[in-house]
Amino acid sequence: xxxxxxxxxxxxxxxxxxxxxxxxxxxxxxxxxxxxxxxxxxxxxxxxxxxxxxxxxxxxxxxxxxxxxxxxxxxxxxxxxxxxxxxxxxxxxxxxxxxxxxxxxxxxxxxxxxxxxxxxxxxxxxxxxxxxxxxxxxxxxxxxxxxxxxxxxxxxxxxxxxxxxxxxxxxxxxxxxxxxxxxxxxxxxxxxxxxxxxxxxxxxxxxxxxxxxxxxxxxxxxxxxxxxxxxxxxxxxxxxxxxxxxxxxxxxxxxxxxxxxxxxxxxxxxxxxxxxxxxxxxxxxxxxxxxxxx
Amino acid sequence: xxxxxxxxxxxxxxxxxxxxxxxxxxxxxxxxxxxxxxxxxxxxxxxxxxxxxxxxxxxxxxxxxxxxxxxxxxxxxxxxxxxxxxxxxxxxxxxxxxxxxxxxxxxxxxxxxxxxxxxxxxxxxxxxxxxxxxxxxxxxxxxxxxxxxxxxxxxxxxxxxx
Lengths: 294, 162
Description:
Chain A is α+β, with helices and mostly antiparallel strands.
């Protein structure tokens, strides 16, 4: 037998209701949430979580597996598998950048298990599905015994592996507001092969008004200590007429906003150079996707 | 030492009870109970040779906890071969197309292929490649594996297979 066993020994529970989940979170020590397990189990196998004492499986709570239409958007609950999100008609029609990002993640058998909530809670600066949620103006909803709260997806991340989630809190859902008309979407990811973890990624979502950009939002992965929302760049584009020159100029300025590092996937230099290329590509393809011409 | 949990599940159509500790993976529980057709490769969700159908969905058993499978249904490559006409046909196609060299990836490849074909997969080489993107093979260069799945997909489209 292979020697990669889980180092920790821990308790395991799979409650049937959200109340019980929150109760366990509030009372037990060193609890980890199990949604898909594709990050958690691998981390345990690598011995990265020596303190974990309790594994709390949320897949027993039926409502946490749902994707629900809301009056003004879509609510994707924490236990919904990536596979069910990418094959959802509402996501395909309204949030294509999210669908593309998910389809660029890992393999089908991993996407059958993994969740969007897990991609957030893992809080990796590389997380592919996070950029699109930020660009669609998404919100993250959390709940604990003390009550519920909501933060903008762009404010959710603090540092590698660290988010605003507090002890005893559960990410319950990710909420996406309905996109406006003439919205253009683009997601670009560079990896060695398609299912690899990204070397670098970018999402662009813009609204077009004739030949002008009404508003634009950009987010990048793997260029800073957390998934990066490029607020100033996006806002700077609002009201401008879209041209190839504008896309080039914006892309050149990107290096002022990013602080990539070198790691086992690629170098800081590569990320700095390629950021400009994919920023231009993402802007142009989002523009064309919105029905605009160049 | 954590207490063992009793889990009831259906493996290859047979109801079974495993006694496992909470930190034991489904892969390990299966192999401990002599389901040796489920292979153990990287054990961290990359190589795909441990792929099984969990409630009809291709799943990597090495990063699935056995404890989380209470009440679920598991099918392995071998069980599928004996009980499912489509899976048996795909196994035969692997032999016909020369898709097996060392054979270590084959159980996972076949389960991934069964998932693809059972979820409406067409005879489309690109889509087939995407469907086995979570399974590594170090011998064949994948071409013959894609050939085998393609062949069965064509047979389904021609109506030669139910």
